[in-house]
Specification:
single chain, alpha+beta, two-stranded antiparallel sheet, 7 strands, 4 helices, three-stranded antiparallel β-sheet
């Protein structure tokens, strides 16, 4: 029904030993696509901190992309997100102090 023999067949034994062609070309195309390997998608993005193109990256809530090369179970080899956060936390000018003002300093300003 779905297949038509290409040669004349006299018995079921002959039927098993001969090749068949599908009755419809779409079935052949279906089989071809069924056994094809899927392509793997590889995304390359530009790091917003160092400017390199990378496939291993993380994205922040501000849609900034950063490199992150890490072997599972070990600390990261390269982590631009951590470097970016540390660069934002360091004081830019020298007049910023890390200590909180004392009560005397607060009362003297009032």
């Amino acid at each position: 029904m779905g297949f038509e023999p290409t040669i004349g067949v006299t018995s079921y034994d002959d039927l098993a030993n001969h090749s068949f062609q599908p009755a419809h070309a779409s079935f052949h195309i279906f089989l071809k696509h069924l056994y094809m390997k899927k392509r793997k998608v590889e995304i390359h993005v530009k790091c917003d901190y160092c400017g390199k193109y990378t496939t291993s990256f993380v994205v922040t809530t501000e849609h900034k992309r950063f490199c992150r090369w890490q072997t599972p179970g070990f600390p990261p080899d390269e982590d631009c997100l951590e470097d970016y956060i540390q660069s934002k936390r360091t004081p830019i000018s020298g007049n910023i102090t890390s200590q909180l003002p004392t009560k005397k300093q607060i009362n003297s300003k009032i």
